[in-house]
Write a structure and sequence with these properties.
43% strand, single chain, 2 helices, three-stranded antiparallel β-sheet
Length: 314
Amino acid sequence: MKDITLFKKFGKNRSELKLGVILFLLLFGIQAYGQIPLPPESSCTSKDLEVVGARLDLDPCFQCEIGGDPIPVTLILAINNTTSSFRPTFFFSGILEETDAEGNVTTSTITDCNDSEGLPKNQITQLSFLDIQYNCGSTYILKDLYLAWTDASKVVDQTSKNSCTNLTTKTTKINGINVLDISPKCGTVPVLQIDTPLAGEVSFLDATCNGGNDGELEAFPAGGKPPYTYLWSNGEITKKITGLIQGDYSCIITDDNDCTFEVFGSVGEPDAPVSVTVIGDAILCNGDADGNITGSVSGGTPPYTVTLSGDADD
């Protein structure tokens, strides 16, 4: 697992942060909770704020090319402030899990704190955090999230009580253990899906014989908003199409946002039909068993199975 610990929005006057403070945060405040452990979940009794959604800051119908270069995209969390007061600071830490278009899964630690935008009272706010490297066709989830926030005191600079600097470095003792001083204003989220733009891929199964019609193609949407519909170039409207001859096909995937993503696939076939050549040597004398047959097979799809038939006396 690789570690990613980035701070994107760190106070209204980020120029006031000194190098020593930044190094301290990276080494002790966030990245390594071995030095400053989180408090036990049971101490997070406040239910003031909750994360109700996550997305990447992209148009839902953003078009990209699978296999292209990753692009940095801001992560946005939708946070519900159920209190009657403005909350200036919000922090989270957890695991970012990416599943790429080929099904490969990678994980990394992710953490950030925002004290420059704030959360107005009694409403859901879209709060921006660090950039994620978005790969077209990948899906993302946040796992094992730990959340923390502050009271209503304003943040003037990083010496303020409710600044990200204080929130992520101030400690207290719980049951004799030194932990971040964030309880009871903290919480956890086991899994949170990150909304991403619609993309897709196609799997294929070639025809087994030259000129055959048993090829298959299947579309696999990623991201977007289910349910999905499918329109293939041969007029089919199912996720998977079968009974295909050799050729090139395309499919337009449409999601519930009415976004579309076109995918392409090809069905192949063996270069030539199966051809069998048989050469026989006759027996030398009547009643002997010294004849033989030699056969060669070409075309089709190896490996081959050969079955002999006929009367041995013929």
